[in-house]
Amino acid sequence: MVELRKRREAPSAGSEPPLKKSSSATKAKADPGPAKSASRVIGDVGAGNMLKVGSTVEFDGFGGEVETQDGDMTNLKMLVNDSKNGVVLFTYPKASTPGCTTQACLFRDEYTSLTATGYSIFGLSTDSPRSNTTFKIKQRLPFTLLCNPNATLIGAIGMKKIPKGTTRGVFVVSKTGRVEAVESGGPAATVEVVRKLISDAGKANGQTINMVKMQAVQNVSEADDIEAQDGAVAFKPDAHGSQADVAAEVADTAEKLDGGADT
């Protein structure tokens, strides 16, 4: 017996063909767009301020409050005020992990030379006071460790990862609020940033000292030339005393600058 199939009816003249899905809509759904990268937030969190070397930090309210490993509350403004020439903050992701231990111990081993020009060094992380206390004691760290669990200060100096985490890096700010360094990097690289900064400062100070000493010699030489030209004038104790006073004053200034470079 032959099975009869029902013939599909042809569409009526007034009917419209079914609409096809938009190719652009399909493409938009298939293309998720460029992958989001972990961007760094530099400056006050959410403020859009970009910190860079040479820019000036407004200390009031900058980065909020942080806690030391001993439980004392402080902020960047207080740390800078208590320093001689400024503050070094090195950031690390997690206390007592291999990379962070290496970084902290490198700063520990060069602590004397890195603080020679008056900078105060602090470690900064999101760790708890308990974790940082254990870290400090075990590694015999000579500097204070700052605890910033909500990452307000970490974010303000540009070392907060998005959405979570801490970038290893270093931030240096002078007593006047000038940003001297802000850079991410490995354990040794963060120490090298500060080492170079201290070295450059020492060279600049040495040039100033040499200029003062050269000026002292020039002043004495010019005074002697003036006296030699006035051959008809007898010996003048007051004139010689004036020369000695000028030379002593300039030499004293040079000595003070020289002493400042050694501290």
Helix content: 40-55%
Distance between the termini: 113 Å
Low-confidence stretches: 24-30, 32-49, 233-240
Number of helices: 8
Within the largest sheet, what's the order of strands? 2-1-5-4-3-6-7
Number of strands: 7
Largest sheet: 7 strands, mixed
Structure description:
The chain has helices at residues 23-30, 76-82, 98-109, 111-114, 129-139, 152-156, 187-229, 237-262; strands at 66-68, 73-74, 86-91, 119-125, 144-147, 169-174, 179-184. The chain has 8 helices and 7 strands. The longest helix has 43 residues, at 187-229. Helix 3 runs parallel beside helix 7 (187-229) and helix 7 (187-229) runs antiparallel to helix 8 (237-262). Strands 2-1-5-4-3-6-7 form a 7-stranded mixed sheet, sandwiched between helices. A hairpin with a 4-residue loop joins strand 1 and strand 2.
What is the secondary structure topology, with strand pairs?
Layout: H1 23-30, E1 66-68, E2 73-74, H2 76-82, E3 86-91, H3 98-109, H4 111-114, E4 119-125, H5 129-139, E5 144-147, H6 152-156, E6 169-174, E7 179-184, H7 187-229, H8 237-262
Helix pairs in contact: 3-7, 7-8
What are the defining features of this structure?
263 residues, alpha/beta, seven-stranded mixed β-sheet, 8 helices, 44% helix, globular
Can I get a quick summary?
The chain is an alpha/beta fold and 263 residues long.
